[in-house]
Design goal:
255 residues, alpha/beta, Purple Acid Phosphatase, chain A, domain 2, six-stranded mixed β-sheet, 6 helices, 13 strands, globular
């Protein structure tokens, strides 16, 4: 099975670029299942039912999120009702939505797990313990983890902790694609961060002048998305259906 994980979608320009590029890319690479992180897909941050639908319309099979998922209240009911979108599992259990889901494709089943880091991030439960709890309940070969975290060390530690127990761990949140895609010793595919999908001439998708103003002054600033050319970043994982072992992890950037 070939799974494509797509990095954080930024604003409407990121959604539109995904719609433009994803369908042909899936055909070119023979993608069987696409997971997209959509937590920044709405204009002005967060995710809305509208931006989520744009991601699905582009050809995504599943949406993961992160620390900005609850910025827009209109997404709450959507999270509760749509089985193909999840929020980090180590958020408070009374939060809208759920933290993992099993998708039955007929010929195989996929468990997608969303976790949030704790280093330099908002308060949440322990991702290591949450992963253990979920994996104790899940009975399917292919298990994919989106670890939405800031610290590279925390991402690497979780991936190695789960090595051999899940098929792949990919990091999101920093919007910078890392050059360390690998198969870990026990067969888990891993990349520290898959990057972002949105404005390329930007600071993490934001207009550079706005980020510079905030960094210089510390004053509150609305982070509007930049314009201009876009890119789509992600990672392709090839996984054995019978064993759940990852055989290839390939980072990609489409401009």
């Amino acid at each position: 099975m070939v799974i494509f994980a797509v990095g954080d979608i930024v604003s409407d320009s990121g959604c539109e670029f995904l719609q433009k590029k994803l369908p042909a890319f899936k055909r070119l690479k023979g993608i069987d299942f696409t997971i997209v992180n959509g937590e920044n897909s709405a204009v002005g941050n967060g995710i809305t039912p509208c931006s989520a639908q744009m991601i699905f319309d582009a050809g995504a099979d599943f949406i993961t999120t992160g620390n900005h998922v609850f910025k827009r209240r209109e997404i709450y009911t959507f999270l509760d009702e749509n089985p193909r979108i999840i929020r980090p599992a180590n958020f408070h259990p009374q939060s809208p939505g759920r933290g993992y889901e099993i998708i039955d494709l007929g010929y195989t089943r996929i468990c997608i797990i969303n976790l949030s880091g704790r280093v330099y991030m908002d308060m949440c439960g322990n991702p290591f313990e949450t992963a253990d709890e979920i994996l104790s309940k899940v009975d399917c070969k292919i298990k994919i983890v989106d670890f939405h975290a800031e610290a590279t060390a925390e991402k690497g530690a979780l991936a190695r902790y789960l090595d051999g127990r899940v098929s792949a761990v990919f990091g999101t949140h920093t919007h910078i694609q890392t050059n360390d895609a690998a198969i870990l010793p026990c067969g888990t595919g891993f990349i520290t961060d898959i990057g972002m999908t949105g404005p390329a001439d930007s600071v993490l998708g934001v207009k550079p002048e706005l980020s510079i103003h905030y960094m210089k002054t510390g004053m509150p600033t609305r982070f509007d998305a930049a314009g201009g050319r876009c890119k789509m970043c992600g990672c392709i994982f090839e996984i054995d259906n019978k064993t759940g072992v990852c055989t290839c992890a390939e980072p990609v950037t489409v401009e």
